[in-house]
Amino acid sequence: MSSNNKGFKRKLKILIGSSIRQEADTLKHFLDSLDNLEKNNILVNYYFIDDNEESSSRDLLKDFKSRAKEKIIIQKENAVDSYICNEDTHHWNEKLIWKVAKYKNRIIDYCKKNNYDYLFLIDSDIVLHPKTLNHLISTKKDIISEIFWTKWRQDSSLLPQVWLYDQYSMIEKGREEKLSQRETSHRLNNFIEKLKEPGIYEVGGLGACTLISKKALNKGVNYDEIYNISFWGEDRHFSIRAAVLGFKLYVDTTYPAYHIYRKSDLDGVRDYKEKCLEGEKSDFDYSKEISIKSNISSIVKNFIKNFYSCDYRVVTGFEGYRYLSPHYIEKLSQSQDTIIGYLTSHKTICTADIIDLNINTEKIHKEVVEAEVRFSISSKEANTENQKYFSCSLHLKKYKDSLWLIDFISLRNSENKNILGFSLDNLLKAKERVAKSENNKLTLMMLVRNEENKFLSRVLSHSFKYIDNAVILDDASEDNTVGVCKRILKDKLENIVTNKSSNFKNEIYLRKQLWEMTLKTNPDWILCLDADEVFENNIINYIRDLINQSSFDYYSFRLFDMWDESYYREDTYWMAHKYYRIFLIRYQPNFYYTWNEAPQHCGRFPNNITKLDGCQCNIRLKHYGWSNEALRKEKYRRYMDLDPEGVYGNINQYETILDKNPSLIKWKEI
User: Fold this and answer.
1) Closest CA to 52 of 86, 29, 18
2) What pLDDT digit, counting tens, does each position of 413-467 carry?
3) Per the database record, which ranges form the Glycosyltransferase 2-like domain (predicted)?
4) What is the pLDDT of residues 29-70, one digit of tens each?
């Protein structure tokens, strides 16, 4: 080599090949994308097999050849076979499949004979990102495809043209491994979501947009039929042969291509090209965008169809579970026997059909998607046939492992009135749910006993600033507790009742008594505080926003056990502030409330409120019931007297109440 040639690097020779039978409007976009490919330091030639039926498509190929600088071979064929291509799907027959395989093998033979470094085989309904070819070469893989996403049927989700096993399986699974339906769905979603992240991934099958190295070609990869394999499609036979010859198959997801699978997909080409050229947004983001709506649509359709259809003879109670978030699954688990009992006793047979579906991705940056659905239920209940119409608001949230799950459900009847609950039996009962979003009244309910010299004045003075009225049950106080309540609450005191004798040893009796007193005031929202609990000040600013909305029926908060005015306790047995507990609820007259019938620690509210939809709130509560030594000694004696075995509480916690050196953390205002 002469000194002038030192450092010279031969350009890679690339053959781009395609077997083409395509409508002109689709073919034009394919050829334009080939024109726009970046071809840095590579020499590109083309080999097209012209199997077109349309003369306009043949003319496009001729025009492409006439204006191109690269070498282009166009081999004309007679398009004697036909296949059905409509807005739903493509219908290929065996004869046509193996004719296309023969054409691809012809391109392979030409590539090998002319010593090309790579063959880039592409279907003619693909639109490529300009960086695709250079990027695939840079991966140095022997066989690698660029991903694209397709709705193989109009009502299906967008899926990739790559797979893991067999005909088109995308579920990672051992040969003898048995998977539940939920785990199957979980693994499928994992695979799909992984491919939406930019990267290179090993797969078991690929096609339609594939770069193949000289090494792989010379070793014998091709599209010949493998006679003892029944899998449909030449790409399956290519992939299996490649694996047998020792080659790994890969997919790249950095620059997803666009697939014009049906005429309606032409509408998205301009948007795809603009996003490619803008460079402001990665094409990976674009791929995610175009797939999210389709994926959500499929999830919602399947959920409505499965969850709100029923045949009482085979009902399990698990229909639609895989589409729901964990907290909805928990709600269903609590009600499963009730739901099944209703459906079987009414001999319910019904079918849900979607009428209209709208997907809103405005909050996608928060990993939330909203859906509005109108659907009908055709039912046969106790030999009576009828059809009812409903609408539904759904929020879907992106959970771990990139799963989209339904995280909020709000049902409405044909008159657009909210329905109480979300399960099928709730829908069929069609009990109206109160969902007032303005001018809601906030009622404080409180149980008191001998609170005059403790924290009652502070608690009531603070709550007076944001409540509308109050209901107080005094459990036979021996001091001026009632007087304090009347003095501070003034005209906001809706009702106060004093028991003649104390029932403190039977807390459930008192809680239910207070509940019934409160319901007599026709409350909208009920706030239940004990006489030693105070919200931080920002509750005053946010309380109206919390209660004047239509989505949620309860709020849970964190309660901090103050050990003095400035410090709260945190250790193994003192971590109430780590959990959210319900303090604020919207009263639902048509909801059947139940209680934990325990004499102590029964809960301040009915125990089935969590079957309704609620929300966690970050506003905090201070609990002063342990905040001085006298109170701690008093409570210790009371718990040991009322619950010496720790049947209703935690005996280990009782024994730590009087610890000399507890672990304390300073309260910080936020």
Assistant:
1) 18
2) 998 899 999 999 999 998 999 999 999 999 999 999 999 999 999 999 999 999 9
3) 446-558
4) 999 999 999 998 899 999 999 998 889 999 999 999 998 888
CA distance 128 to 110: 23
Delimit the CATH 3.10.450.230 region(s) of the chain: 291-429
The CATH number that domain 442-666 falls under is: 3.90.550
List Cβ<8 Å contacts ≥24 apart for 298-302: 298/155, 298/156, 298/157, 299/323, 299/396, 299/404, 299/406, 300/354, 300/357, 300/359, 300/371, 300/373, 300/394, 300/396, 300/406, 301/155, 301/354, 301/357
Single pTM value for the model: 0.55
* Fold that domain 11-281 belongs to in CATH: Spore Coat Polysaccharide Biosynthesis Protein SpsA; Chain A (3.90.550)
CA angle 374, 330, 188 (to 5 degrees): 70
Tokens representing residue 379 in the block: 């039912």
Q: What is the longest distance spanned by two Cα atoms in the chain?
A: 114
CATH 3.10.450.230 is the classification of domain 291-429:
yes
CB 539 within 8 A of CB 619: yes
Query: What is the SS3 assignment for 96?
Result: helix
**Which residues make up the CATH 3.90.550.10 domain(s) of the chain?**
11-281
Cα–Cα distance measured from residue 129 to residue 143, given in angstroms and rounded to the nearest whole number: 19
Identify the CA nearest to 138 among candidates 254, 9, 17: 254
Phi-psi region of 646 (alpha: psi -120 to 50; beta: other; left: phi over 0): left
Task: Specify whether the CB–CB gap between 282 and 253 falls below 8 A.
Answer: no
Contact criterion met (CB below 8 Å) for 248 and 202: yes
